[in-house]
Amino acid sequence: MYPVYLLEDDLQQQAIYQQIIANTIMINEFGMTLKCAASDTETLLAAIKDQQRGLFFLDMEIEDNRQAGLEVATKIRQMMPFAQIVFITTHEELTLLTLERKIAPLDYILKDQSMAEIKRQLIDDLLLAEKQNEAAAYHRENLFSWQITSL
Prior knowledge:
Blueprint: E1 2-7, H1 11-28, E2 32-38, H2 41-47, E3 55-59, H3 68-79, E4 84-89, H4 95-100, E5 107-110, H5 115-141
Parallel strand pairs: 1-2, 1-3, 3-4, 4-5
Helix pairs in contact: 1-5
């Protein structure tokens, strides 16, 4: 199962995002699972220990740290070069920092939109991640390697 992670410190928003993610995975029968929904960075980082891949929905501001999500994304990118990262934030002005730090997010969802629009973007990101994950699995299965040994 492809792991999905959520970092959101507003528990009401976290519950809404969790429901959207879980319902989308269930309805579409994706090979994904919501592995962790955390409200602090330490819990999320502990949950991804020893993981090689994943889809991350990260709030940019956690508690009073406006760049906590960005800092976590930097650590995730170092641990998992091919992780898929989506920021969900009110801080549009931090978009450029994601490029400067070479995080390469899959998406950047702004919270000042309607909940219907946020839901649509979350679903679109899950669909895209599933397609990319299937394509990567197909390529891994079709790789052939061989080695010549001397006699």
